[in-house]
Task: structure prediction
Amino acid sequence: MSTNWGTTLTAGQCRAYAEDGVVHVPNAVDSDLLAEIDRLADRQLQEPGPWVTDDGAEQTDGRLFTTRYLWRSEPAVRRFVFESGVAGLAATLMGSTSARFYFDHLLVKEPGTESPTPWHQDIGYWPFLGSKICSVWVACTGASVAESSLEFVRGSHLWGCYFAPESFTGESEWTADFEGEHCPDIDAARRDYDIVGFDVEPGDALVFSAWTVHGAAGNAGTHRRTALSTRWLGDDATWSPHPGSDPSVTQADTTAVPGEYPADDDRFPLVWPASDGRTP
Ligand SMILES: O=C(O)CCC(=O)C(=O)O
Result:
């Protein structure tokens, strides 16, 4: 898709990203790509890849399943990353001249899944620092907030807080290595926060800063909720591995130097602007 997001996004959408830390961009991705991702989700549920979170095996009421870092092996995800236009969308909203790709995260909640996505900030999970780092979460299926579309604490990206990563399944995993402040219990005091949630249609994108606190309810609906979240690094991102950060790319996997911009074209490819001069 060759959308020029610089002219397509409204001033209100750009302001929402800057001030709220999240913006809803309807109809951002073509339906043929979404269908490919839906098929991939079916395959992954049957035969999960290496980086999986799954509370499904013993679960009777639904299943919260996530798998990530598929872009190097799955052509559908590769196409999504390099051809859907989401890199340009991320760069434009971050106010960045470039967007490097970090990783993809496919998130599935079967109908009846009780497990919420815990309230969290993304930055603590990731081996990066910088203000221009974001996710483009694309709905592959429609979902209301009650069906597990995302909610955000408006303006929380400006709190100046850096919260510990939270396990999605509640079990102690790599996130436990992090020492630091935990995200407040937003649900225990919802009225104290400015919470915004978005009902989404297939192809809608929610673009949010890595510093914005967000979460999602379980899926009280009758159909599967599938989303593909891609993670983007802007001009001021620096490589910053730390205990408790995402083990899918470690120092051993990259030439990136701690404290410096991650100019590793193999692990963190520059997708925007496209090297062949096309608008991706
Ligand atoms: O889809 C979800 O339930 C969670 C998504 C999320 O937390 C993210 O993309 O950062």
Q: What stands out?
A: The helical segments are 5-8, 11-20, 31-46, 75-83, 86-94. The first strand starts at residue 22 and ends at 25.
